[in-house]
Amino acid sequence: MKKIGLRIGKIRFNNIDSVVIEGIILLASFDLFRAYADIKVINAIFAVKEIVLIALFLYYLIERRTKIPSNIVYLYLISILYLGLNIRFDTGVLLYFVFLKYFTVYYIALSIFSICNIESEKKAIDILTYIFITYSFFSLIQGFLFPQYMVRAGRVSGFANPSYLSLIYLYLYLYWTKNNRILLAMWFVMSGCLTMTKTFFVISPVAIIGSLFISEKKKYLLSMIGIALATTTIIVCNNQEMLYTFDRAYKVLIERDANEYNSFEDRNSRGIDFEKYNSGNYFCGYGTASASAATSFVNEKFNIQIPHATDFENQYLNLYYSSGILGLILVYLPIILIFIKVLISSINFNKKILFYLYLIVFLLFGLTLNVIESFTSCIISLLFLIYEERSILRCDRLPHDSMQRNRYIS
């Protein structure tokens, strides 16, 4: 295998796995520039992101001289065939290709993470940690130096694309809690709170309560959680704009204010429409990408109105409406298979909890926003899920006898 020498700080990359995976993580982190770049720069970055990912993927296969696992290839081809045959003329072929782009990114990330070495995945998580700590510190320092820009749109300046950031912060919180880096984990809880997103407020209690089962320092973790939440509360209460943003989130989540966009009542009404419009099409749906965030993309970028298209602000409902039960199973089958592998392994339940928490965060995130159709959340979700799955399965392959295990490790 060709060796490549590259060093960033204390992290050294010495093989093609590390270089490609870190390239993918950097691509996924480009969303951070939303707060600072003008709209033309953002569009330019987004336009080349998928192209660069595909180029990295091809370079990886050529340099590593390896093959994609056949089960991933077959599943991808079957899914593409089904989604292609499921196009409706009133939806438009263009919208299908937009969805196909998202779906291909999903499978490319799945392929690379499945065949790379686990040490490179761990380095990717370390780099991700450094990126987001640096970025969040920069955002706060900017706020202290320029108080007038401390808060934008009710959020700490720089915490752009907050829904995706809140997902990443939760993954990093769980990861570092498991590794007993409690102070580092607390920083990501505070950062997640400062994104001021409804998604984080819904999912974080589940993640925080679940983290108590994976931490070896439960009392210390509880005390730090209290300090982090108290500090965040003080910051929010001392800023009128942030307090207003939190009040809106409260009305949506607790009071179920029907006048608030994306409130529970609002979503419930969409669900009723979904049942009404989907009558008789449960198996195949109404056509690939007929209900999808891709619809909004086509309307915004190309000014093309798609007849009979809708968006439920929910990844699972969008996929179900568009491709039916069969399409929903095909899209999420890789995640289902990963879950089954972990479930049937002989490792005890306590060592599987972190994987289950990652999976729960992934599933809950898909209830309120897009997963497959989001470059950032898709790639980073797969990174954490596959890394933890492989960590568990690698332990499962170790001999259970202690003498054999010591001989194996040596």
Describe the structure.
With 410 residues, the chain is mostly helical. 70% of the residues lie in helices and 2% in strands. It contains 16 helices and four strands. The chain has helices spanning 16-28, 39-64, 70-85, 93-115, 118-145, 162-178, 182-194, 198-211, 218-237, 240-255, 264-277, 293-302, 315-344, 353-368, 375-397, 402-409; strands at 6-8, 11-13, 151-152, 155-156. β1 and β2 form a beta hairpin. α6 runs antiparallel to α14 (353-368) and α13 packs parallel to α15 (375-397). The protein is globular and about 60 Å long.
Keyphrases for this structure?
globular, two-stranded antiparallel sheet, two-stranded antiparallel ribbon, single chain, 16 helices, about 400 residues, mainly alpha, about 0% strand, disordered C terminus
Strand content range: under 5%
Runs with pLDDT <50, length 5+? 1-5, 252-258, 400-410
The number of E-state strands comes to 4
Q: What is the count of DSSP helices, taking H or I runs of 4+ residues?
A: 16
Biggest sheet layout:
2 strands, antiparallel
Q: Quote the average pLDDT.
A: 75
Give the helix level as a range of percent.
over 70%
- The radius of gyration is 22 Å
Form type: globular
N-to-C order of helices and strands: EEHHHHHEEHHHHHHHHHHH
Distance between the ends: 24 Å
Q: By helix and strand content, what is the structural category?
A: mainly alpha
Order of strands across the biggest sheet? 1-2
Short description:
By secondary structure, the protein is mainly alpha-helical.
Furnish the topology, listing elements before pairings.
Layout: E1 6-8, E2 11-13, H1 16-28, H2 39-64, H3 70-85, H4 93-115, H5 118-145, E3 151-152, E4 155-156, H6 162-178, H7 182-194, H8 198-211, H9 218-237, H10 240-255, H11 264-277, H12 293-302, H13 315-344, H14 353-368, H15 375-397, H16 402-409
Antiparallel strand pairs: 1-2, 3-4
Helix pairs in contact: 1-2, 1-5, 1-15, 2-4, 3-4, 3-13, 4-12, 4-15, 5-15, 6-7, 6-8, 6-14, 6-15, 7-9, 8-14, 13-14, 13-15, 14-15
